[in-house]
Design a protein that fits this description.
Length: about 375
């Protein structure tokens, strides 16, 4: 089964380009809201870094989600797209001075602070600007995630967050600072997580930390469990949406949220990955000595995930119904890792056939580069046609 695309209209656009199915995006956003509302005090933010295409961001902002940012540029993009400043959270191990000033100036909801050194700078900056920064401490929970090593973030060996052993000391210091208001804890254990057991392990760790804090009469109003919910890259047509119900239920069941607390989520991939496809044309079919190659006009500069994390994207030939043959699908960039898929079964390919690389809405367009002096791909949404 192949996805359905407005093929007659694809001819107007220069390939490669990203196509975002906004019906699916809106349905996904609706589902997220409906599933989150089954629980009390669950607040969902969208992780801007997954896809910052302005048209996509607009639709997400209109759905009422908050914004999770990891740079000053993302704060600007979020505000431009219509996310309210009161729903912007900002994480990152290396916040520059101007980024901290921007967050304070725009009065964002919360800085997720990743070190004592950063906390001190935020405190000084806020006092100088006559402001008070709401801060949550990002704690490294030392919880593994069953995902690719390059996208685990919650292990002691990763650069992210404050070690659990240092948590209380940093909180004590935060509570004495005039420029900051300590409001909660933040976590993020990784990405493309499909095993709910990983999130359960995070819940258990947070429960322990909460008990520890309460013993010292430290109360917090906000717990932020980050993002990381994965999608089914293998079957984009059968499973077009992530399992939001199981995800939220896992936290409802296993996290001991106190009466006055709000639970925050920061979903990126699960919001946008399924709705996006990279559309590319076959330039050449090349017979190698032991295999044949479909050479596309898109390359790793347009979609780097396969080269960077050996990620799988389902590939479909949208313009051929001929019997399947096996191809290595490769881009034109001068790197051996510029391969979208090896031994891929595709309907027989010809020059100018259109291929879709599915589930490419997250960490696709936003990670595009100009290596080899290539053009950046454009992004179109359903309404553009
Ligand atoms: C990347 C990131 C997210 C989103 O991760 P997804 O796997 O795309 O859901 C959420 N929070 C933080 C702090 C991040 O860095």
């Amino acid at each position: 089964m192949k996805g359905t695309f407005p093929l007659e209209r694809f001819d107007q656009w220069r390939t490669p380009f990203y196509y975002y199915d906004t019906d699916l995006l809106r349905l996904t956003l609706h589902t997220i809201r409906a599933e989150a509302r089954r629980h009390e005090r669950f607040e969902v933010h969208y992780a801007i870094k997954a896809n910052a295409n302005p048209k996509v961001l607009n639709i997400i902002a209109q759905a009422g989600l908050g914004a999770d940012c990891v740079s000053g540029g993302e704060i600007e993009a979020a505000l431009r797209a219509g996310f309210p400043h009161s729903k912007v959270v900002y994480a990152g191990v290396g916040k520059s001075d101007w980024e901290i000033e921007l967050g304070l100036e725009k009065d964002i909801f919360c800085f997720n602070v990743e070190s004592l050194a950063e906390l001190e700078v935020i405190n000084e900056t806020a006092q100088r600007m006559n402001r008070k920064a709401r801060v949550a401490l990002r704690i490294n929970p030392n919880v593994g995630a069953h995902t690719h090593a390059n996208i685990t973030t919650g292990l002691a060996e990763n650069k992210f967050g404050i070690a659990m052993a240092d948590m209380e000391n940093v909180i004590e210091q935060a509570l004495c600072m005039k420029g900051v208001e300590f409001i909660g804890l933040h976590f993020h254990i990784g990405s493309q997580i499909l095993d709910m057991g990983d999130f359960k392990a995070l819940c258990n760790r947070i429960n322990d930390l909460q008990q520890q804090l309460e013993k010292h009469h430290i109360n917090i109003g906000h717990i932020n469990v980050g993002g990381g919910l994965g999608i089914d890259y293998q079957h984009p047509n059968r499973e077009p949406m992530a399992d939001f119900r199981s995800y939220f239920d896992t936290f409802a069941r296993h996290l001991n949220l106190r009466q006055h607390q709000t639970l925050h989520f920061e979903l990126g991939r699960a919001v946008v990955a399924p709705c996006g496809s990279l559309i590319t044309r076959v330039l050449y079919v090349k017979q190698g000595t032991c295999k044949q190659f479909a050479i596309t006009d898109a390359g790793m500069t347009d979609l780097i995930r396969p080269a960077l994390y050996q990620a799988y994207h389902k590939i479909e030939n949208l313009t051929s119904d001929e019997p399947c043959e096996t191809y290595d699908v490769v881009g034109p960039v001068c790197e051996s890792s510029d391969v979208f898929g090896k031994a891929v079964d595709l309907n027989r390919c010809h020059r100018h056939d259109l291929l879709a690389l599915r589930s490419a809405g997250a960490y696709g367009e936003i990670m595009a580069s100009q290596y080899n002096c290539r053009r950046l791909p454009e992004g179109f949404i359903t309404e553009d046609f």
